[in-house]
Structures are given as C-alpha cells and as structure tokens.
Amino acid sequence: MTTTLVTGASGTLGTALVPRLIEDGHDVRPASRRARTGWVRADLRTGEGLADAVRGADVIVHLASSPRNPGGIDVSGTRRLVAAIRGAAGSATGWAEREAAGSATSWAEHEAAGSATSWAERETGDSATGWAEQGAAGSATGRRERETGGSAVSRTERESARSAFSRPERDETGSAVDRANGDATGRAEAERGLPRGGSGQDGSDEVGNGHDKGGQGEVRHLVYVSIIGVDRVPLRYYRAKLAAEEIVRRSGTPYTILRVSQFHPFAVGLLEKSARLGPLIIDPGFLAQPVDVADVADRIAGLLGEGPANGTLDFAGPQIMNLDEAATTWLAAKADHRRVVRLRAPGKVARAIRAGGLTTTATPTGSRTWEDYLAARY
C-alpha cells in the first residue's frame, strides 16, 4: 500500500483529495499544523514535525499555501519540506548548505530588484488583485471611471469599486490552492522569513536533478499544486508560488508540478464581494477558467497513478469565459436582478488577466461547467 502524505489536508482541495486517495487504496497521512486525531502534526512555518511526517512516506502531495505569508509558507515552507525529504534520504545537510550558499537570486532579492510592485504602485492600484487573488483586479478611481464611460456611476458605487478593485483582503485565499496553514504571521514576519538561495532565478541546478534515480530516499513522487498564471500575472503571491515551484524542481526528488485554475466557490466569493455594496462591479474583459474541486482531486489521483512527470502541467475547467458572462450566469442562477456596473480596471494585473493569464489551452480539462456548479448550488 502506498503511504501518501498530504500537506494542507484541511483546505478546500485537501478535503476533497483525502477521501479520493483513500478510495484508490492509499494509506493517506493528512498533515496539519494543528493536532488532530488520526493526522500528523507538521508546521511548515517552523519545520516542527516535518521530519516525522515525511518519514516512511512514498508519495507527498503538497497543497499547503498562504497568500498572507507566501514567503514563510510557500517559499520557506516548501524548502523546509524538501529538506525533510532529503533528511529522510540522509542528504539534507548538504542540500540546505547549497541552497543557502547558492548563487541563485533569492526570492527576497527578486522582490527588491524590480519585479516587486512598489508601495506607490500598490497605493494607486497597479498591483491590485482580481480573479487572480482576493477581489476584482484594478483600483477603479473616479477619474478612470469617467475615462471608461463610468460617469453615471454614483459616488457610493465608485467607493465600492475602489474597495473591490484594491489591495487584497487578508482573510481570503487567492487561488485554487488551499488556505491550510493560512493563519499566517503578518507581512513583517513574512519578509523576515524570506529565504536566500534556491529560487532558481539563474536557472542553475546545483544539486543535480536526480530524477532518473527513482528518488534518492523513500519519497518516490512529490506533487506540488500551484496556480495557472504564476508566470504571467504579476502578483507577489504568484511570484512566491513560482519560487516554490523552482525549489521543487531543484529538490532532486521525482516530481510533478500541477498548476490549476480558480475553484468555482472562489469565483462565487469574488462576485459576492464585488456586489457587497449593492451593484455588481466587474471588469467584463477579465478571462477565467474556473474548475471543479472534485475534478482537480481526480486529476491528482490520476497523476499519482501515472508517476512523476518531472515537469509542469496545467489543469483547468472546460470553458474559458469572460467575467461578464460569469456574472450574468451567476445572477440568473440566483434570480438576482441587481444592477451591473462594468468598468475597465487599470494596472498590470488587470491587463494580464484580460490577456488570458489565468487560462490555459492544456488538456485534459475538468468536466463540470460553471453552469453545472451554479445549478447545483442554487
């Protein structure tokens, strides 16, 4: 029987995946940073319990993520997990030293070196988040509304637009990836926790790939669940996910990186937030490809049966749609006749989303459509 460790098992995807793997005959070892009966306790923030959690695992599915603390969880946490895997194989020390001493530009340096959006840009909405993270992207100002035909929008609605299109709210996840380990520390702690080395910005692979060896220890397959668009949508959280992907690639453990699109419930949550002050405020040009959680769980189960891809795969829902279509269908499904205010959101993030940064042409796709999900929900 295959022993499978699942990090982030208490999150949305983990909750669907654990029973699916049990169905397939896996001996599932769900992990959480909180003690639970029948679970292993492992804290990616500190590394506490990771060695015990990894010991004896044949497969690891790494779901844990935190938009509020991406440096501490997604980057450093993934590095701690990989070090624990290599510790089980007896080679953790050398790997950790090479990671610390490596010539690759760290994620923190990358943030400071120009790809990070400045405080001023954040204040003016150029790093606002949208379908990609916790609200509709952009920071629709009154001036931009007037330039894009929004002069009929009331002052209250403009304030709503600013709220919906501004910086992310910290209690929401920004992707299809779960919020397990999401009770993160604040920004200052996250910045202090940013690791040096190992982000792979220079494309180096100091540790060798090791992928043709069937694993250097007990772990035969490491699956990391990331997000479609981490390499195209310029969000701080996405940059952290991209850095975590590189840590997995450099780990020496046979791996598969699966980038998935936003889950249906997440898309509904964004629409609800955009309508919280009355009218539904959207950028109709945003493109999305939401996917069903159960479809993602099935895809992961299939990948475990296929073995390591030693590469990156995309998985999304069966239909690409713009936000206008998604919003109209959502309102109809719940018989809601509220006014829809359509604005073109400014900024790099908004442009990337309109250009299809959160979508993919990869196959296979999930089978459950947005309409199917709404019909079942309402």
Automatic annotation (TrEMBL):
Residues 89-215 are annotated as: Disordered. Residues 5-85 form the NAD-dependent epimerase/dehydratase domain. It holds the Pfam family Epimerase. InterPro entries: ComplexI_NDUFA9_subunit, Epimerase_deHydtase, NAD(P)-bd_dom_sf. SUPFAM superfamilies: NAD(P)-binding Rossmann-fold domains (SSF51735). Residues 155-173 have a biased composition (Basic and acidic residues). This is NAD-dependent epimerase/dehydratase family protein. It comes from Paractinoplanes lichenicola.
